[in-house]
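User: My notes are a mess, but here's the protein and flavin mononucleotide's SMILES. Can you give me a structure?
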Amino acid sequence: MRDVASVAAMERHFDAAFRAEFADLLVWRRDVRRFRTDAVPEEVLDCLFRLADLASSVGNCQPTRFVRVDDARRRAEVRVNFENANRDALGAYRDEQAELYAKLKLAGLKEAPLHLAVFCDEGTGQGFGLGARTMPETRRYSAVCALHTFWLAARAYGLGVGWVSILDPAEIAATLNTPPAWSFVGYLCVGWPEEEHRTPELERLGWGTRTPHPVLRR
Ligand SMILES: Cc1cc2nc3c(=O)[nH]c(=O)nc-3n(C[C@H](O)[C@H](O)[C@H](O)COP(=O)(O)O)c2cc1C
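Assistant: No problem, the inputs look usable. Here's the predicted complex:
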């Protein structure tokens, strides 16, 4: 891998061809729940972690903690956690919406070769609290920035990422035996996607379509 951090040019111009490719990366990024089971090469994974390190973080505090979940017993506990939370979530819907929800595949936990839990170290001393004094939640936002950078980088390598949030976070912390100061941000299934699409699965299956984010002026 090229050492991206050491390419310290004073100026770097991105041309129209790059912008078009970048737009395509965003258009073709998907939340993936259907994976092939073949492994992700270690050197690719290392590269994705190093690219995620380049994400912005409040005060440069780099609070993101990735936990790679390889242990079969822990993975099984996460699956049970998801199944329980998903059953509870189904109970909150009625009629046709409940019928549709029940048909959705909302995690690829069984097939994905790689499981990554993402945490935020709320107690990190790095950055000396800069920027987080009035808004400590910016540490968690920083972890989301790293997670999303990882997601885009994975897509650039042809890998799929599926974010699973239908989970009890306290149970996740217990399953993974993480320090009390770490808050759970999200659980990622990572692997080679079975299919590629330009539109979200939830849109294709009729759950709802994307809308532009409102931009207000004051
Ligand atoms: C914070 C967050 C949590 C999510 N949790 C889940 C989840 O538990 N299960 C799931 O199937 N998708 C989950 N997703 C994926 C979204 O449903 C998906 O991003 C959305 O439908 C748009 O699809 P796209 O990512 O393919 O554009 C989550 C996404 C985000 C950003």
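The first helix runs from residue 16 to 28.
User: Great, I'll file this with my notes.
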